[in-house]
Amino acid sequence: MEQRILDFIAEHHLLTFAAGVGSDIWCASAFYVFNPQICSFIITSDQNTRHIQLAINNNPDSNLEDKNNIVAGTVALETEKIGMIQGLQFKAAIKKADGSLFNEHRLLYLKRFPYAILKGSDLWILELLELKFTDNRLGFGKKLHWTRDAKF
Length: 152
What we know:
The chain has helices at residues 3-11, 50-56, 100-112, and strands at 14-21, 24-31, 33-35, 40-44, 70-76, 86-96, 123-135, 143-147. Strands 1, 2, 3, 4, 5, 6, 7 and 8 form an 8-stranded antiparallel β-sheet that branches. By secondary structure, the chain is an alpha+beta fold. It has 3 helices and 8 strands; from the N terminus they run αββββαββαββ. The model has no long low-confidence stretch (mean pLDDT 87).
């Protein structure tokens, strides 16, 4: 993944993602921490929320360990200056962090958001499958694309 994309992700902390089953679709915003080793966003949310239920039930043939529960989302810079527009759109597989991954990702998340220890929500991994990064600072409408390498 290009350093410009990683830098943008590191500069922000809020993403929005959408999930749906049939015509029932819902968006949610979440604080995130990014794990560059696995190209994944780590978020917290209660498993009983509408957006998580839609995300984990959007493929009847999958389970929480599969990469078949797909969400789409964005991270955006809020600006009115056309030449400064930056943002990314992504598609990710969502899975619950548990087992050996839980402690590693929980520590990463709590390091950035220590107050999250009070909430006690479930931890989720949004494993990026593809993304498109728009950066008008590189030229109007300039897009950088990334897809998960098959050997990653």
